[in-house]
Structures are given as C-alpha cells and as structure tokens.
# Entry
Amino acid sequence: MLSVHHLGKSQSERIVWLCEELGIPYELKRYTRDPATMLAPPNYKALHPIGAAPVITDGDLVLAESGAIVDYIIAKYGNGRLVLRPDDPDFAQFLYWFHFANGTLQAGMGRLMILNRLKLAEDNPMLVATRGRVDRAFDLVDARVRSADYLAGNTFTTADIMTGFSLTTMRYFQPYDLSRCPNVIKYLGRIGERAAYRRAMEKGDPDMALLLS
# Structure
C-alpha cells in the first residue's frame, strides 16, 4: 500500500495534498520535528539515505524528492488527472510552473533563509542579490495568476500543488510579505477553498495555521 511519510511543516504536505486531490487510498504516517533543532527525528531520517522530507513507500519501493514522488503517483495512480497532455495549448506552461516550484522559487527562498541566519549586513551583495531574485520570482507568480486562475492556465494541476508549499508553509521558515503580491493572495484564496487542500492540511498539520495571505 502507498504510505506517505509526512514530516510536519515540510514539502511532504505536497504529497498528502496530491493523494487527497486524487482520492486514492494511502496510509499517512506523521512525524514531528525536534522542538529544539526543528529537524526531522531520527526515525524519519532513517527512511532514506538523504534523510529529508518527503518520502513515500509503496510496497518495496522507497522514494524521495517531491517532484519525483508527484510524477510517480500521477503515473501509477493518476489516470491522466491533474496534468496536461502534450497536445494541450497550456502544456508548456504546465511544465514550466511545475519545475519553477523547486527549480527557482523554493531554491531561492531556501538560500535567502540561510543567508538571513548568517546575520549579514543589509548591504551584503549576496544578500541583496538573493532578495532581488526571490522578489522577481514572487512577481512572476503574481503576474501569472493575474491572468489565469491557476499556474498552468484555468485548470488546477500538480504545478499548483508543487508551488503551493513555497507560497504558504515555507514562509514559516522564510517570511515573505505577500501584500506586494495581491494576485498571489487571491490565488491562495482559491487554493484554500479546495476541499482536498483543507483535508490534507487537517490530516497532516492539524495544529498549524495556514498562511494563505
């Protein structure tokens, strides 16, 4: 049976959300971060050599990396749902935004989080450049969802599931003021109205306030 090993406040929320959107049977195994270090507990780190979330098991398979897991679940259990076909006019947009999530947005926020923890001077060139890159990434998302309901167009896809974490829960680790991105706030309002998203967050992180604005 498919098991989702969910570490609280982590990218593994994407996988819980995906399973809820698809309505497929799965076992949810929740893990709590160490209260002092905020890192994964030893029994989570032991699941996979990389020691990071997310991780799924499916029979004898152990798989990490959220993008790979999403692709695997869609290929095996999705029956063509939540993705666009190559002949769809928005197919290229779907591919771009699916990979933008971890390739640009999440990576930039992660770098900024680390630099902020180093307590660098405000005019440090690396810090200034990274902040600018993150701002441009958010601006790009804001522009996209000004003209489309969802990132791939007017259809909700796995691109939205991938990006949702960075726009919401990731801000617990790297705060970001969304007031400069009014269209992102409206977009997250649409996300927050999805029953599957609400179920996923209630099951995975029931005590966490959702950062939808």
